Amino acid sequence: MSKTARPSLTSLSDRLAPKAAAARPAAEHAAVSAAEPQDPEPAAPPAEGPRDLKTMMCRVNRAGWQEMSRLSIELDRNLEDLLIEACNDLLVKNGHPPVIEKRSPTRRG
Known about the structure:
Elements: H1 9-16, H2 19-23, H3 26-35, H4 62-75, H5 79-93
């Protein structure tokens, strides 16, 4: 059985180095780094968009699902709206601001 040579840690770190920085000579890299501002002005927070949405999921028993479905029908509101309301109520109950909002409908096409 033949053993294959394992790469050394230095060669692995060389492989992980950014290609743009690795392609530049060291003197040029130092000159470019010195020309860049050391303490750039902080960027403004990004505008809200589809990437700001996060999914929350929970699994419930069948009886719980049926009751929530019935409540949704009784109140003529969709389940997502009810869950958002419940989550905001939980935040308020524990002294946090109710910041959870429904996702905006996206247009396709």
